[in-house]
């Protein structure tokens, strides 16, 4: 008669459940972040135009351009973060940020010269920077049905 305890790796009922990671971030979380970014940028733009003497009022074209530039920058930042995730080392983070910032600021300046937008084209660079740093909120903590076994 076998009195040894069952092997947890072979007994289906005792196998450890796979660890659940953070909840997957869907398009809704990204959309909420982008809308919040636009709300903050548009409020800042309206305040600066109000406090600047002689500044023209913001038109619907300027608002649409701001939405377009932040969407483009945020998408660029998300793509950048997907292919080059944020490293743990501080110096590597600085290098990665510079390699993102230099082209996006150049693209922003070029768009600013070509389009002559009512709003600063540097919002593209800001949105790209924030998109590259964006992380989804962690999901619910996984629960364990039994204490973990030591190995």
Automatic annotation (TrEMBL):
Highest taxon of source: Bacteria
Organism: Deinococcus knuensis
Keyword Membrane carried by entry: yes
Transmembrane segments: 31-51, 63-83, 95-114
Protein known as: Uncharacterized protein
Keywords: Membrane, Transmembrane, Transmembrane helix
């Amino acid at each position: 008669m076998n009195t040894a305890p069952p092997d947890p790796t072979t007994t289906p009922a005792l196998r450890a459940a796979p660890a659940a990671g953070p909840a997957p971030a869907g398009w809704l979380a990204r959309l909420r972040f982008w809308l919040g970014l636009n709300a903050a940028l548009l409020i800042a733009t309206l305040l600066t135009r109000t406090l600047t003497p002689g500044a023209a009022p913001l038109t619907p074209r300027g608002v649409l351009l701001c939405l377009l530039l932040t969407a483009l920058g945020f998408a660029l930042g998300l793509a950048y973060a997907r292919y080059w995730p944020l490293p743990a080392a501080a110096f590597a983070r600085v290098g990665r940020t510079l390699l993102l910032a230099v082209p996006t600021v150049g693209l922003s300046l070029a768009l600013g010269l070509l389009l002559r937008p009512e709003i600063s084209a540097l919002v593209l660079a800001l949105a790209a920077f924030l998109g590259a740093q964006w992380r989804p909120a962690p999901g619910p903590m996984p629960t364990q049905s039994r204490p973990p076994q030591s190995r």
